[in-house]
């Protein structure tokens, strides 16, 4: 799911790409959204808070998108399989 909402401790957050059934998400990093330190810190806080309720977060940085997307997608597929095994 895209832009999946979660709530932790009364605060709402949005996950870029989420598989809610296994609490797995992919956060896409791009300079447009992450150039500012405050934005980067906010994202790290969201990752940590999501982890407190059982979410596993992996990040997809701009470099991977532009130079290694096939490899990144393959890695994410492996991570999804591992997560499915772990939560079953």
Describe the protein.
The chain is α+β, with helices and mostly antiparallel strands and 88 residues long. The chain has one domain (2-87): Endonuclease, Chain A, CATH 3.40.960. Helix content is 51%, strand content 30%. The chain has a four-stranded mixed β-sheet. It is flat, with a radius of gyration of 13 Å.
What attributes does this structure have?
Endonuclease, Chain A; 4-stranded mixed sheet; alpha+beta; 88 residues
> What oligomeric assembly is this protein in?
single chain
Mean pLDDT over the full residue set: 92
CATH topology: Endonuclease, Chain A
Flag low-confidence runs: none
- CATH C-level class is Alpha Beta
Helix content: 40-55%
End-to-end separation in angstroms reads: 20 Å
State Rg. Answer: 13 Å
The beta-strand count equals 4
State the major sheet.
4 strands, mixed
Strand order of the largest sheet: 1-2-3-4
Total domain modules? 1
Structural class by sheet pairing and helices: alpha+beta
* Series of H and E elements: EEEHHEHH
What CATH architecture label applies?
Answer: 3-Layer(aba) Sandwich
How does the SSE layout of this entry go?
Layout: E1 2-8, E2 11-19, E3 24-28, H1 31-34, H2 37-52, E4 56-60, H3 62-67, H4 69-87
Parallel strand pairs: 3-4
Antiparallel strand pairs: 1-2, 2-3
Would you kindly provide a brief summary of this structure?
By secondary structure, the chain is α+β, with helices and mostly antiparallel strands. It has four helices and four strands. A hairpin with a 2-residue loop joins strand 1 (2-8) and strand 2.
């Amino acid at each position: 799911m895209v832009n999946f909402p979660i709530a932790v401790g009364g605060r709402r957050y949005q996950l870029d790409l989420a598989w809610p059934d296994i609490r797995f998400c992919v956060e896409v990093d791009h300079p447009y959204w992450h150039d500012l330190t405050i934005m980067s810190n906010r994202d790290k806080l969201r990752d940590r808070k999501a982890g407190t309720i059982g979410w596993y977060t992996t990040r997809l940085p701009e470099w991977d998108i532009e130079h290694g997307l096939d490899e990144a997608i393959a890695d994410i597929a492996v991570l999804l399989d591992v997560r499915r095994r772990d939560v079953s």
